[in-house]
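[Discussion] Sanity-checking designs against the backbone

I'm trying to build intuition for which residues belong where. Below is a structure token string of 255 positions. I'd appreciate it if someone posts a full sequence so I can compare it with mine line by line.
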């Protein structure tokens, strides 16, 4: 059994957007309030996070865990990495934390967070990590389960999705090739980014996401990385197919 908690389901600015008078930003519905995207996956009494953006501290305070066993990065954009320093409390209790990323993401993190990754630049209180480089066609073992990296494109930027058993997480994608689509067959749960109704140069919009879902045919799909331009949660939910759902912050499911 794998437990999933959607720590954040919003786009890069989060919802509400600072200063916005958009109806979604003014909504009192808790499902319309979205922190930056992150997912907590737990199995075998181990906790693994996909991405740690600028809201990571707040997300873990409201979904407390005792240990953090791994972070899997999808790409290097700030809304998916800017909370990296907030792993310090875990490091103080348990020691170095494993992080998984492609070589390009590793180089970016090493440049921005050299005091974490580069042992030569340590200062007192800085956390330490074990950096594990992943490759597109090489699965890896994580707390007793195999993880399959899946490449997609965020406009011209490669992003890495992850499949664990029959669960897959794909965020910030615009295009995905046939080879990667084959890795997304026979899913029980697909977690897929879907920015808004209107077209966008680097993200799937709602129409594109539904076309991809219809092609892959997962049993259930949860949409994430949602902007205020998608519309109110309750209104959009009524228009979706029966097996497609808008995820929301703190949603917990077991698979």
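Best answer:
Here's mine. Compare freely.
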């Amino acid at each position: 059994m794998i437990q999933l908690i959607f720590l954040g389901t919003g786009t890069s600015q989060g919802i509400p957007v600072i200063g916005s008078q958009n109806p979604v930003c003014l909504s009192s519905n808790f499902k319309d309030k979205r922190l930056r995207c992150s997912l907590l996956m737990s199995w075998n009494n181990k906790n693994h996070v996909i991405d740690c953006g600028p809201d990571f501290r707040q997300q873990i305070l409201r979904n407390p865990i005792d240990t953090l066993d791994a972070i899997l990065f999808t790409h290097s954009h700030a809304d998916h990495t800017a909370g990296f320093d907030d792993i310090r409390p875990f490091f103080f209790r348990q020691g170095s934390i494993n992080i998984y990323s492609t070589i390009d993401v590793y180089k970016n993190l090493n440049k921005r967070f050299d005091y974490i990754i580069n042992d030569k630049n340590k200062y007192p209180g800085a956390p330490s990590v074990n950096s594990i480089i992943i490759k597109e066609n090489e699965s890896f073992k994580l707390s007793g389960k195999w993880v399959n990296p899946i490449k997609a494109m965020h406009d011209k930027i490669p992003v890495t999705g992850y499949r664990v058993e029959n669960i897959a997480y794909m965020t910030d994608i615009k295009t995905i090739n046939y080879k990667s689509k084959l890795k997304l067959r026979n899913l029980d749960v697909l977690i897929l980014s879907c920015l808004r109704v209107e077209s966008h140069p680097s993200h799937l919009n709602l129409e594109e996401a539904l076309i991809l879902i219809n092609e892959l045919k997962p049993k259930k799909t949860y949409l994430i990385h949602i902007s205020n331009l998608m519309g109110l949660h309750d209104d959009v939910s009524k228009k979706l197919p029966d097996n497609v759902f808008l995820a929301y912050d703190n949603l917990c499911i077991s698979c």
